[in-house]
């Protein structure tokens, strides 16, 4: 009886959901912002492959871009391993993460990460969610992820850890609804990176290359920091003031690694 009482609401919820087209808002599918620039789609496809190539994404994780014609829409692949993503797999969503034109395609369960961050951060135009492996230990340890070298100077702004238990108690750890997406966006605050306890991380940027750069160098920094910790002794991290002084160099040179990564990833 206790079991039935506990289960009944979720059974009813599933029944209610099943009566609507999957993923559709009550008023029907949101309107499209229209076609995006093919160069932007190419960059989004490249970002998927670059992040797979660099060991940040594997069969899981995703990267999105805000639609340049309508800030209330974003573009994200259908549910697919990032290395396999092509232009034809890119779907359009509103910021509640409803698809504009689902056509039976399976969607990423955790797409709410993207929609809710775009709502909270108007200056953010690209979002990466990954389970990049070297970063995960810092999501569960009392040792904070800190900048080890200049390339990851952006970490000087601080790296919050999203504790999903504080937001929703015991869960399967996935950001599978808008409420959890909002809680994650609140944890991220105004930072470029947030860790997700026992799960992964999210990086955001003003463009695809920035979000990708932050995702790659968060992973590299974590590897180097683990090595430095392994040496024993104390660690002399990049000071916040040094981080602040270095950051403009990232903006000044980001096209160099981006062009290389893109060429390698799309040339495969
Ligand atoms: Zn995830």
Provide structural commentary.
The protein has 268 residues and is of the alpha+beta class. A hairpin with a 3-residue loop joins strand 6 and strand 7. The N terminus is likely disordered. It binds zinc ion (ZN). The site of zinc ion has 5 residues, from loops.
In short:
The chain is an alpha+beta fold and 268 residues long. The chain is 42% helix and 12% strand.
Helix content: 40-55%
**Terminus-to-terminus distance:** 58 Å
Given helix and strand content, the structural type is: alpha+beta
**Rg measurement, Å:** 19 Å
H-E string? HHEEEHEHEHHEEHHH
In total, the number of strands is 7
**Form type:** globular
Major sheet size, sense and barrel closure: 7 strands, mixed
Mean pLDDT: 91
Attached small molecules: zinc ion
SS element count, helices: 9
Strand content: 5-15%
- Which stretches of 5+ consecutive residues score pLDDT under 50? 1-24
Strand order of the largest sheet: 3-2-1-4-7-6-5
Features:
268 residues, binds zinc ion, 9 helices, 7-stranded mixed β-sheet, alpha+beta, globular
Itemize the secondary structure elements and their pairings.
Layout (H helix, E strand, L loop, with lengths): L1 H17 L19 H16 L8 E5 L6 E5 L12 E5 L17 H9 L5 E5 L5 H5 L20 E2 L1 H5 L9 H11 L4 E4 L3 E6 L2 H24 L8 H14 L1 H12 L2
Parallel strand pairs: 5-6
Antiparallel strand pairs: 1-2, 1-4, 2-3, 4-7, 6-7
Helix pairs in contact: 2-7, 2-9, 3-6
């Amino acid at each position: 009886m206790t079991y039935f009482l506990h289960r009944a609401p979720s059974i009813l919820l599933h029944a209610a959901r099943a009566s609507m087209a999957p993923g559709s808002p009550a008023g029907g599918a949101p309107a499209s912002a229209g076609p995006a620039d093919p160069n932007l789609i190419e960059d989004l496809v490249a970002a998927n492959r670059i992040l797979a190539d660099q060991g940040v994404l594997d069969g899981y994780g995703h990267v999105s871009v805000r639609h340049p014609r309508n800030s209330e829409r974003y573009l994200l692949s259908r549910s697919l391993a990032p290395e396999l993503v092509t232009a034809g797999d890119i779907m359009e969503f509103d910021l509640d993460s409803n698809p504009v034109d689902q056509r039976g395609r399976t969607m990423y369960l955790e797409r709410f990460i993207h929609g809710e961050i775009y709502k909270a951060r108007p200056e953010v135009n690209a979002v990466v969610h990954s389970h990049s492996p070297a970063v995960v230990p810092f999501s569960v340890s009392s040792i904070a992820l800190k900048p080890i070298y200049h390339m990851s100077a952006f970490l000087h702004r601080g790296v919050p850890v999203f504790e999903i238990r504080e937001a929703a108690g015991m869960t399967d750890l996935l950001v599978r609804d808008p409420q959890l997406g909002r809680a994650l966006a609140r944890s991220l605050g105004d930072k470029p990176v947030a860790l997700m306890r026992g799960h992964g991380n999210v990086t955001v940027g003003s463009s695809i290359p920035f979000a990708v750069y932050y995702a790659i160098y968060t992973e590299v920094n974590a590897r180097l920091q683990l090595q430095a910790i392994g040496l024993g002794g104390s660690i002399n991290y990049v000071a916040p003031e040094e981080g602040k002084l270095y950051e403009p160099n990232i903006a000044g040179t980001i096209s160099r690694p981006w062009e290389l990564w893109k060429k390698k990833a799309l040339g495969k």
